[in-house]
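All the exercises in this workshop are built on plain-text protein records. Instead of coordinates, the fold is spelled out as a row of discrete tokens. Once this layout is familiar, the rest of the handout is easier to follow. The record below serves as our worked example for the rest of this section.
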Amino acid sequence: MSPMSRRSPVLCDACAHFRQRVNGDSRTTADRYIAYCSAFSEAIPRSISPGGYDHRRPYPGDNGIMFEMKDGKEKILALYEKITPEDRRNRVAPDATEAVE
């Protein structure tokens, strides 16, 4: 993968709960995988990934499960904090009806 095609890291990339599964309905490389986790078993809400919401804070529908650092991912967390604007990370979480997109 060339440096120009890499996406920016999101908080999920450093999270112990993060998982991906193959998207059988994929039509492009951009949607080849579905990101999910312990908090969001169907799919991570887009306002978290790739939206940048900081899930170290509660989010509607997360059942109290939030970001937990995965061993060895400290540099990814630092990069997320560096490149994701603070106002984007710390915006107000949507209400429960907006949480699942």
In short: The chain has one domain: 15-88. The beta strands are 19-22, 33-36. Helices lie at 74-83, 86-89, 96-99. The first helix runs from residue 74 to 83.
